[in-house]
Design a protein that fits this description.
Number of strands of chain B: 0
Distance between the termini of chain A: 60 Å
Strand content of chain A: under 5%
Number of helices of chain A: 11
Strand content of chain B: under 5%
Oligomer: heterodimer
Order of helices and strands of chain A: HHHHHHHHHHH
Order of helices and strands of chain B: HHHHHHHHHHHHHH
Largest sheet of chain B: none
Helix content of chain B: over 70%
Structural class of chain A: mainly alpha
Number of helices of chain B: 14
Amino acid sequence: MNYWPLAGIAIVVVGFALRFNPLLVVVSAALVTGVLAGLDLLAVIEALGKAFNDNRYISVTWIILPVIGLLERYGLQQRARAVIEGMRGATMGKLLVAYLAFRQLASALGMKDIGGHPQAVRPLVAPMAEAAAVKTHGDLSDEARDEVKAMAAATDNVGLFFGEDIFFAIASILLIQGVMESAGYPLSPLQLSLWAIPTAICAFVIHAGRILAFDRRLGRAAK
Amino acid sequence: MITYEWLYVLAGAAFAVWAALSLKDGRWGNAAFWGLLAASFLLGSHLSDLANGVLVLALVAIAGFGGLKRSDPPTTTPAERQAHAARLGNRLFLPALVVPLTAVAGTLLYNYTPLGQTGLFEARRETLILFGIGVLAALAAAMAWLRPPLLAPAEEGRRLIDSIGWAAVLPQMLAALGAVFAAAGVGEIIGGVAGGIIPEGSVFVTVVVYAAGMALFTMITGNAFAAFPVMATAIGIPLLIQADGGNPAVIGAVGMLAGFCGTLLTPMAANFNIVPAALLELKDQNAVIRQQIGTAVPLWVCNVLIIYVGAFWLWH
């Protein structure tokens, strides 16, 4: 067997580790992999161009930026902070755990488009979490603020990934069903989505515990 | 019928406006980058594969050599924002909620009422198309309500897209890399290697290799969808289901979730890990991944145990 196409993977790993520009890394890996697999360079460029063109729908979502930017111009982030400051007993921990539960449940019901980084985390969840952390722990260093915002983004990801598969009409479940069926194991989407529940519960327990531990650690560091 | 092509025209128009504003601002690199992306959206369906490929190489050359810079279009000051926020109150959230509500409620209506039989939208494309409609509705509502200068949404959008920079096209580029990997047969090679290192007779070790393969291959490609068919056909189906007699539903569903743990750990999953770091203007590009390690690793262990217990103990 020809193992040379794996060099493309090595380029990706080394390129990311050395912090080269990721676009440069990805395209170099694609060109090298294709050529080492025995394809003609021109054919690899064509394959890359076709695949990039076929996947344009991925980048369509940026059309939301004018809406978010316009609302930010009129104080959306400031308003999100004010809401939290007005709540008694709102801590960063409680807020993010509540968002985790909301994101998992909404995704499990098929509403995975509520939430997401440009729509929800940047304008709402991250400023709210930051405001709550400042409210309980006093002023925070820039590093601590970045950690809080990163935790808000991480919570959105965990909630989405380990909620969405409970909803049966989702791409990943349909992919599993398709692969299993072509191997001679017909399964219903519901059988598959039921088995996403134990992992969803583990994800909630583990990540909620980590959020609360992070909040306590920030409190100790601030003192 | 409304198809993706309509969305591409919309996105192409947005990128073209950002390119023109960058040009006016004297930011040549940004103008060229967003201009090429606009060309891809507006003309891509009519260009040859080679022309699209050359366009990709040009995009990468601009970004790779530092041609993209942040911008600071005119906007409101923090004090003005505070005053606006106090005056406008929680109604500010409404336009932001219009977008997801249009997408979700529209999808449900379209799929569960006779509306779906009208064939208004391209099949299975309704959610993203409704997202686009939601954006237009939210923009129209916000413009009518707030009455900002006409160019304000374009300039505010440019401020955000320039802060994201090259990361904005990374997810699409990674999808293209996945297609090249598939054409080069990378999946089959990995599957062969993973299948070769498993000792016979140990169900638990096989489960561990299967779950580890899902996580690692997902980390490499940035996408559990690319990993699943490879690991399922290399290990999941021939070894765990056929040789060891495991429950196919558990092996399929929880195997995929073991892959999702890998998604939390890799910069290749740019949409989830790198783009938010740029959006939130974090100093460390890997800050989101750092916060996810402590969840992903124990959760991966849970998935191994769930497969072992659910697919074998409870099944026999």
